Amino acid sequence: MAESEELVLGLDIGTTKIAAIICEVGELGKVSVVGVGMHPSKGLKRGAVVNLEETVHSVTNAIHSAELMAGVSMDEVLVGIAGEHIESTDSRGVIAISAPNREITHEDVNRVIEAASAIALPADRRIVDIIPQKFEIDDQGGVDNPVGLTGTRLEATVHLVTCAEGFAENIIKSVERAGYGVSRLVLEPLASAEAVLTEDEKELGVVLLDIGGGTTDTAVFLDRCITKTFVVPLGGNDMTRDLAIGLRTPMNSAEELKKEFGSVWMPLIDEDESVEVPGVGGRAAKMVAQTSLVEILGARMEEIYLWAKREIHKLNLYDMLAAGVVITGGSAKISGAVELAEEVFELPTRLGAPHDIGGLGDVIGDPIYATGVGLVLYDILQEQPKARKRRRVGVFRWFRELFQDFS
Q1: I need a labelling partner for 274 at 20 to 30 A (CA). Which of 76, 168, 303, 399 fits?
Q2: How far is CA 177 from the centre of its chain?
Q3: Is 217 helix (H, G, I), strand (E, B) or coil?
Q4: DSSP state, 6?
Q5: Alpha-carbon Rg of the chain, whole angstroms?
Q6: What would the pLDDT profile of 26-65 be if each residue is shown by its tens digit?
Q7: How many other C-beta atoms can be found within 10 angstroms of the C-beta atom of residue 253?
Q8: What's the CATH code, domain 87-164?
Q9: 156-211, pLDDT tens digit by residue?
Q10: SS3 label, residue 372
């Protein structure tokens, strides 16, 4: 690796899978994927740790697989965070410009953001991210970057994302027990947005639905800024559970049926086709019309979309979504997801996946990797160049002590 490059590890800790993505970041911010690791997620429910040891085992295996592929050893991890406990709000702050020439500096911007972020939080909550939305100088709005401009008063509006303190601590503990430090927690839909949305979409107005196993994490962008984030407490696992109950088949069989024959859009399937459905507890298999799968899966996916649509209407943002809807995440890959979204939202919809990534970009050009890749891109975007800490590559350690403990 060249002296001007560094390695960054993004870790997507989801309800159904844990994905580790190691990226090489060049001097000009060019990102190339050099290692990918995936492992089934054990010990989590709707993004929350419910079994520490199983979560540590899953995290260790996912990262170790990525390290093996890249031929490197990592020390720090960028970790995605999501779940029903996530909350967000907007806050404003104002400061006076004290410099004799009234020129606004980086320090002034940091001060006004700090002032806007100084809100009272319950003891059981912590701030995950502070996202500047807009600045005003002496009541003049629409300022993208106030540094270098002149004024007497600087105002800022920031989007504050908070989470449950215990939830965050358990995620951090899981990563640290696996032998890695957590350099930063990032809200997953914000990370995914960096991997799958275009700047034009963010400017015109777009809603991103990151449909995972346990939850659907949603972010609304307008004028290139994050406007609102919220969580729909439903995901792909709910679809699988519906299928298992509706067809009276084991959960693992329902998951396989969903992946192989599932769809949420009736026009895409042959109404005369039938599929074999395994029975429960040794009972005989039976043939079921494929339309039954679509009815069950489609109903749950429609509920997810309608839930998100209602939230967007409550925020009075629906009429501002000129760029429509982008869906991503593993559960967004099901047949008919785009078509159903277009019908429910009555807006143009596309499937989002990481793009324009070097190295193993063809391998990770899949919605399931959106968060892992996006974590790295988001980190690059948010960090000031002077504040970035180079993450050097160490000599590869073939056997980590903690990996041996949990493998």
Answers
A1: 303
A2: 23
A3: strand
A4: E
A5: 23
A6: 877 788 999 999 999 888 887 778 899 999 999 999 999 9
A7: 19
A8: 3.30.1490.110
A9: 999 998 988 998 999 999 999 999 999 999 989 999 999 999 999 999 999 999 99
A10: helix
Ranges of each domain in the chain? 87-164
Whole-angstrom Cα distance, residue 232 to residue 84? Answer: 7
- Of 29, 7, 15, which Cα lies nearest the Cα of 76? 7
Distance CA 373, CA 80 (A): 11
* Calpha distance 207→230 (Å, rounded): 11
Q: How far apart are CA 349 and CA 343, in angstroms?
A: 9
CB atoms within 10 A of CB 26: 14
pLDDT computed for residue 383 by the predictor: 63
- Per-residue CA distances from 223 to 119, 200, 381, 401 (Å): 25, 9, 17, 48
- Judging by beta carbons within 10 Å of its beta carbon (0-12, 13-18, 19+), is residue 108 exposed, middle or buried? buried
Give the β-pairing of 216-222 and 44-45.
unpaired
> In this structure, which amino acid lies at residue 255?
E
List b or e across 181-209, with b for residues whose CB sees 16 or more CB atoms inside 10 angstroms.
ebebbbbbbbbbbbbbbeeebbebbbbbb
The tokens of 376 are what? 């790295």
H helix count then E strand count, the chain? 11, 19
Query: Rounded distance, CA 231 to CA 196, Å?
Result: 19
CB 254 within 8 A of CB 238: no
Instruction: Report the C-alpha gap between 175 and 44 in whole angstroms.
Output: 13
d(CA 20, CA 30): 19
Which residues partner with 37 through β-bridges?
Answer: 20
